[in-house]
């Protein structure tokens, strides 16, 4: 599959608050922990050999499970394959916590759900749709019932 | 650089909805001819393939750090994605008609992670203000919602414009004018599920669901905030329960963050 590699490499060079040297181990049997510069930019996790300019690879942080493995390491599992995980070893418990937190919140889908929540809440509190002023109320991606499974409730009082 | 493609294709075909799909003409760089391709936009990713039912994806364009431009010089139906930086590409497209062109341009303008991040931050601030103005409702704010209200940490790509309180400008996006439409009527019916589709197999032919179907959780502005949280948290709870059930019961520290809601 083709992709805009140069542009993605350029993206990996953007400033990021979450960039650090971590121990990283791939998901396959026999993979060992290697020191990598791991960098979070938008919803991608890039990993570099230390002091190299171009990343070795890019992981899209959507549809993945991030878990604490122990006090200083976390894992990310993709493709619903719970046993095939990437492992990351941090220098401290605090750093580990920050990474888990940041990765979860970096997901586009996570942010979208927040947006829909805020949109609904602001409308409930103020009677106004906050997206109208930006002219994006009708954009499919911001629809209120976009992908959310809302359990039916008794709405007879309304 | 290796892009882990399986992760992208898995995301594309998972149950969360596609943001837009349809035929567009993509200009080949070499000989300047246009080829018709089926495009699928999801989050900040623009996938393309020959036909809707194809399992084989031809390619993907990650939509960060690009501007969307209408290309008047190439015809009225043309537009392009211009990646800003030395040696970076410009992708050129043409739509079949004016309406298609407009709706794609609009969809692409709001597609980036950067844009969404600024929007969420802005709405988060508006939400906090609205709560304060509501008074007593805010004091019962559930602490478990803090994960939802914290802004993301990241700087916009290339450190460009942050959201200005009055200016409302976003990087790589035009300033959007305030609309003077009348307020929408709140629909008095239960929310509909978005029909699930596999983007590879079933193209979307109908229009997007209409705006206006706000979930009904009660009109009383003083309603207990935690009820609302519970209501929206149903899906999260369900996902968590399923996941917890499938986990081995060990003494692992399971962090209370939102994970895999897809």
Automatic annotation (TrEMBL), chain A:
Q: Which domain of life is it from?
A: Eukaryota
Q: Which residues form the PH domain?
A: 15-108
Read off the PROSITE patterns from this record.
PH_DOMAIN
Q: Which InterPro entries match?
A: Boi1/Boi2-like, PH-like_dom_sf, PH_domain
Transmembrane stretches, by residue range? Answer: none
Q: Which PANTHER family match?
A: PLECKSTRIN HOMOLOGY DOMAIN-CONTAINING FAMILY J MEMBER 1 (PTHR22902:SF9), SESQUIPEDALIAN (PTHR22902)
Designated name of the protein = Pleckstrin homology domain-containing family J member 1
Source organism of the structure? Pagothenia borchgrevinki
From TrEMBL, chain B:
**What biological-process terms (Gene Ontology) are attached?**
endosome organization; receptor recycling; retrograde transport, endosome to Golgi
Q: Name one GO cellular component term.
A: early endosome
Keyword Oxidoreductase found: no
| SMART domains attached to this UniProt entry | PH
Q: Where is the PH domain?
A: 17-113
Q: Where is this protein primarily located?
A: other
Which key words are in the record? Cytoplasmic vesicle, Endosome, Golgi apparatus, Phosphoprotein
From the UniProt annotation, give the residues forming the signal peptide.
Answer: none
Q: Where in the cell is it found?
A: Early endosome; Recycling endosome; Golgi apparatus, trans-Golgi network; Cytoplasmic vesicle, Clathrin-coated vesicle
Protein's job: Plays a role in endocytic trafficking. Required for receptor recycling from endosomes, both to the trans-Golgi network and the plasma membrane.
Q: Which family does it belong to?
A: Belongs to the sesquipedalian family.
Q: What name goes with this protein?
A: Sesquipedalian
| Organism this protein belongs to | Pagothenia borchgrevinki
């Amino acid at each position: 599959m083709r992709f805009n590699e140069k542009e993605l490499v350029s993206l990996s060079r953007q400033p990021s608050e979450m960039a650090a040297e971590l121990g990283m181990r791939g998901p396959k049997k026999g993979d060992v922990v290697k020191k990598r510069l791991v960098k979070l930019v938008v919803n991608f996790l890039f990993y570099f050999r230390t002091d190299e300019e171009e990343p070795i690879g890019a992981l899209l942080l959507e549809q993945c499970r991030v878990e604490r493995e122990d006090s200083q390491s976390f894992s990310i599992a993709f493709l619903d394959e719970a046993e095939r995980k990437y492992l990351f070893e941090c220098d401290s418990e605090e750093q580990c916590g920050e990474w888990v937190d940041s990765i979860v919140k970096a997901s586009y889908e996570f942010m979208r759900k927040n947006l829909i929540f805020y949109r609904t809440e602001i409308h409930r509190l103020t009677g106004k749709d906050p997206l109208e002023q930006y002219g994006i109320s009708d954009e499919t991606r911001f629809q209120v019932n976009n992908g959310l499974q809302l359990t039916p409730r008794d709405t007879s009082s309304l | 650089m290796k892009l882990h493609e399986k992760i992208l294709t898995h995301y594309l075909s998972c149950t969360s909805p596609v943001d837009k799909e349809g035929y567009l003409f993509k200009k080949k760089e070499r000989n300047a001819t246009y080829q018709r391709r089926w495009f699928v936009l999801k989050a900040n990713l623009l996938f393309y393939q020959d036909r809707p039912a194809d399992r084989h994806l031809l390619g993907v364009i990650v939509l960060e750090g690009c501007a969307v431009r209408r290309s008047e010089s190439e015809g009225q139906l043309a537009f392009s994605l211009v990646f800003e930086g030395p040696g970076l590409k410009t992708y050129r497209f043409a739509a079949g008609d004016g309406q298609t062109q407009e709706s794609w341009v609009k969809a692409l303008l709001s597609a980036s992670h950067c844009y969404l991040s600024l929007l969420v931050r802005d709405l988060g601030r508006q939400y906090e203000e609205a709560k304060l103005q509501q008074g007593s409702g805010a004091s019962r704010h559930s602490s478990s919602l803090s994960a939802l209200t914290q802004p993301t940490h990241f700087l916009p790509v290339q450190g460009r414009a942050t959201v200005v309180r009055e200016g409302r400008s976003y990087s790589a996006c035009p300033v959007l004018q305030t609309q003077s439409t009348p307020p929408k009527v709140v629909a008095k019916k239960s929310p509909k599920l978005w029909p699930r589709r596999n983007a590879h197999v079933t193209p979307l032919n109908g229009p997007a669901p209409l705006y206006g179907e706000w979930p009904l959780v009660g009109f009383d502005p003083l309603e207990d905030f935690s009820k609302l949280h519970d209501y929206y948290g149903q899906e999260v709870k369900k996902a968590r329960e399923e996941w917890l059930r499938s986990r081995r019961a060990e003494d692992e520290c399971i962090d209370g963050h939102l994970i895999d809601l897809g």
